[in-house]
Design a protein that fits this description.
The chain has 415 residues and is of the alpha/beta class.
Amino acid sequence: MNFTDFDFEEALAESLDSMGFERATPIQEQAIPIILSGRDLIACAQTGTGKTAAFLLPVLNSILKSRVDNTDTLIVVPTRELAIQIDQVLQGFSYFTNVSSIAIYGGNDGKAFEQEKKALESKANIFIATPGRLIAHLNMGYVRFESVRHFILDEADRMLDMGFFEDILKISGYLPKERQTLMFSATMPPEIRKLAHKLLVNPEQVNIALAKPAEGVLQAVYEVAENQKVALLEKLLHGKDDLSVIIFASTKIKVREIEKALILRHFKIRSIHSDLEQQERESALIEFKAKNINIIVATDVLARGIDIDDVGLIVNFDVPAAAEDYVHRVGRTARAAATGVALTFISRAEQGKFKRIEQLIGVHIRRINLPEGLPEAVNEPIINRGFSQRNRGNNRNNNPGRPNRSHRGGGGRHQ
């Protein structure tokens, strides 16, 4: 189906044409007509399928058609990065219109909070917000959402993973009961069904390619001792300065230590995790997209929703705790029918977690022999707690990325 088949308003059609949008993806083809009809929708689609446009385009069309001049749409998302990205995409779609939008997210100074307050009071057409920051504004008493016609939850499963179930229900209490509610999620666990039952009315359902990596991803595994991972990473990245790489680690401690270890080896790398200021995180993404650096190391905060083109290699430095997160990490490459490689390092303690991933995606992923020249393996009989603890004294030269015991890793609502 072509975008011209949706018969969008002229200004929106002009924006799509200028951006080179021609054919709709499956999620767009199925979801857009339902949203245009006014029905509630629960849509399950993995990352990289075009679901952002699937909800933004029909909502924009509705605003243009109804000539709305007040707050019409609230989009709630799990992370600051996703809020910013959706706002950027929205600005492109609305370039030839007068639709206004603003992203509201935490981690900024008091000046930014004041700017958000003024925007909320001025009733921009569309707000994209993280739950915690939005509730901070709602608690102040000046937010009025009585005119909202569209309530959208993006990456709903991720928000529930982060503990936002009650916050979402609280936010919904500030909205009119007569509204259209749209829920987009990559997976459909019981908690999502429970939330949908509370918020949606007789929803239509769309399911697209649930929990399967894109066909263009070449997946492979290295079975490696924890104390060998940094050396293996160095060998894989050596001589690949023109390849865009994202390395995923499960905790902030590991992210910092991987960044430190690779900087010492003269790789062009930046990190993204919740201890950084928002400006630093945005700066890292800008440098990566501009190819001033070719490596980003991050927690799972970067695994969902963030649109980065031409990522050729994903490295799972460790196995994610949730099997679904593997799909999201891998989904950062081979986007829009491109190809890419996803490599996962599995220590002995992580074998069980990776077996669950293979069961989820229905594929036994190929194992690759380790290259020569790695440090001697030290297999830990305990649950993986970061870089090798038992081997610190004997392998400092081989493993400079040692954990800083003054920090706590991961946990909580934010990564």
